Amino acid sequence: MMARNILNNPVYKQLHLGAFGRTLAVCGTAKKDILVPQREYHEVNGDIPCPGMLQGIDHLRDPRLNKGLAFTLAERQVLGIHGLQPARFKTQEEQLQLCRISIDRYKEDLNKYLYLVDLQDRNERLFFRLLSENVKDMMPIVYTPTVGLACQKFGLIYRRPRGLFVTINDRGHVFDVIKNWPEPDVRAICVTDGERILGLGDLGANGMGIPVGKLSLYTALAGIKPHQCLPILLDVGTNNKDLLEDPLYIGLRQERVTGDAYDEFIDEFMRAVVKKYGQNVLIQFEDFGNHNAFRFLDKYRHNYCTFNDDIQGTAAVAVGGLYASKRLTGKRFTDHQILFVGAGEAAIGIADLCVRAMIVEGCTLEEARNKIWMVDIDGLLVKGREHLEGHKAYYAKNVEQQKDLLDIVKTVKPSILIGASAQPGLFTKEILAEMAENNAKPIIFALSNPTDRAECTADQAFEHTEGRVIFASGSPFPPVEYGGKTYYTGQGNNAYIFPGVALGVIATETHHIPEDMFLIAAQELADCVTEADLMKGSLYPDLARVKEVSLNIAIGITKFAYVKGSYHTDGQRLASTYPEPHDKRQWLLDQLYNFNYECSMPVTWTWPKAPVIKTRELVPTKLTEREE
Questions:
Q1: Would you call 143 a catalytic residue per the annotation?
Q2: Rounded Cα distance, 561 and 572, in Å
Q3: CA spacing 20 to 30 A to 596: which of 22, 89, 120, 613?
């Protein structure tokens, strides 16, 4: 009776078995109380689950184990799930075909996005294989531009938690929040505070869609195992009045915390993730405000394994396009005058990496910076002018102030014109014609996103340069018909860069990420561009080959990480994984995620027949003298 009273006490209605992480729910009946095990949604950790920890039903409920109708008859019978599914057996290929049909039925991209989210929640391998084999079609859905709309509607479409939310109210307890993440083997973190989501501005906690989307591409494009990836949203409030008044908003309903309190919170977060996952955990900063992005990169890059994709990833993909253009112009970086229109984090990041490329070619730092010119909202960057904070000052020139872009182009006579201003139509007919007047093959990059923010279209660039332009953009443009030929211009997509960099860094357990790694990524990207790509008007490989690009970049990063003295003055290698692999390509391939279904039954094997050995007669053994 006493036991029954204890079990009926609400305090004991749930008992936790700490060693196994399972919950027992108490069910009362007329005759007796029964402890019924209740399974958690994500009980499987890592990619090598312990068979003794699993029940048959787990293989249907857990997205890491679920194979849908692809379970064989033997698997269904042995696992105890026979009869819980219809009699049809499907291959993964048949499931993929059905997924493609299902997605095509939706007319709105947001509905396609929701379908893929639901697929990931129920069958992880099928989701990632669908994404990895249909990159050109699926990437615009799981990432830009559709993920931007998903972030805007995040409160409405929110279904199941994905990622970790850490709020400013958790100061002093950030490590305790990090500990709640159930995966112990985290190798890569993508973190945002939601202040500058794509070109949409401050979306606060709704920005979680960005790190979730980025890390999906880590797996789909580079084969990084999904359980090793952790998306994090740092919720410090939002200054978006519309969100603050939105009854569906899921984040802190307060204005953004700034100043010392904000900086101390970020410091605590960095310390907490390293304490939990080790010094080599990769921390990718994503979509922080311009005023914080460079500041945090400069602050943390020498003490943590970190990079900023908006700065360094964008820079590498742009410089990769410029490396590829060398095969068309015959010019080195040091032969160019480069004019940037826009002086935000993207433009500064590209400029800094261009400087590094020129130094590699033999320039001094001062000579390299003198070849780069910048224009912001106030005009040409010149010495003595206001608003020359941060890295902008490196590119200010000792010349007369000018504001009109056409006049600046006529004065500077750049051979490369790069737009990162988000000002549509800024590259006018006259400016494009002036570029063609001064250069046999003018290089023009209109990198602003989305398409309606581009400084010019591909059509305009070809038309106003007599078809001599070498063009690239940040958003895709339709093919261009000019002079009886069709050109398919390339898109400088960061997805060419960050998955491969992450794979190389994670595999080698690199403890810091120097700028040279992004220069290597740019060179590897350019090497993947074929003559056929160049002839059709593209400075980038077909997006369908992005997995090949990612692997080549990872190989380049791995080689660099094992070179002594490549970064530290004391001659130490960046890599922490030993011994150094001889065949680096195969070594990386062996670590990649398997997109195909695996057998769900435990491995069994036979033992050799035991030899026949005659044993002696069993005689009772005396344990103590008293037994006598």
A1: yes
A2: 10
A3: 22
